[in-house]
Design a protein that fits this description.
elongated
């Protein structure tokens, strides 16, 4: 497998690429790559360049661009995940797996039952979260990095989500409205998905979301953990969207 790296576009000056910092150290020290080896370099535009390494030292790597093409792994659907804040490593797991699945934007959302409600404390985690997203994007073949928005309260998140074509909020008490049913024959380009924290959304929060045009849906008869619900719902949404897209080609 060819290793992939997102780097600062300013380090790409065709036909050469100059890699510095942690990425250069990873290439030399961790991967022990040698001149003549090839990597794929991405600038977050969707374009990927195949680069043959020419010079490697401790803090700097030089390479020559030998081919380039547009990435084909990015989903046509823009899915924004408004994830209720989670404790421990659960939120990091959602970021990692959500990036692999194809989510375009993550918004940490502070809800009534959130254990962590301090936006300042959450902001201190942003650098680590961004690194998790980047590593997952490189590993999974993404052509663009998902966006990580600042943490915000649920009311602000619902306002922010009004730019989406549809807003979807799974809730365990919405048994008569399964997610798959509302996704039949849809061709929306931007969906907003709201997932609650541990303990889920309160009835009051669900009513507020409904007043903001959210569709309240069920993920089935079993109660899912918050982090499981995020990935289950996202996977179903992408599957239904891509199946519909193929059916109308």
């Amino acid at each position: 497998m060819t290793h992939r790296f997102f780097i600062d576009p300013n380090l790409i000056t065709p036909p050469t690429v100059h890699i510095i910092g942690d990425t250069a150290r990873q290439i030399k020290t961790v991967l022990r790559m040698q001149p003549g080896d090839t990597i794929i370099v991405l600038d977050n535009s969707g374009l990927e360049r195949q680069v043959q390494l020419t010079d490697i030292d401790k803090n700097s790597v030089q390479g020559q661009i030998i081919a380039e093409q547009m990435n084909t792994a990015e989903p046509a659907l823009h899915l924004t995940l408004y994830q209720g804040t989670l404790k421990g490593s659960k939120f990091e797991w959602v970021l990692q797996k959500g990036t692999e699945i194809g989510i375009s934007c993550f918004v940490p959302t502070i809800c009534q039952r959130s254990v962590i409600k301090d936006a300042t404390a959450l902001a201190k985690k942003a650098s680590r979260w961004q690194q998790i997203i980047q590593e997952a994007a490189e590993q999974s073949g993404r052509g663009k990095l998902p966006t990580l928005a600042p943490a915000c309260a649920l009311n602000d998140a619902l306002e922010h989500a009004q730019t989406a074509n549809r807003i979807i909020l799974p809730w365990e008490e919405a048994a008569n409205n399964p997610l798959k049913q509302i996704l039949a024959n849809f061709d929306d380009s931007h969906l907003a998905l709201f997932i609650g924290p541990e303990g889920g959304f309160s009835a009051d929060e669900v009513q507020r979301a409904r007043r903001q045009n959210a569709e309240i849906v069920s993920l089935g008869p079993r109660i899912l953990r918050a982090e499981t619900a995020a990935l289950a719902a996202s996977t179903v949404i992408f599957y239904e969207f891509e199946t519909y897209a193929l059916s109308v080609e």
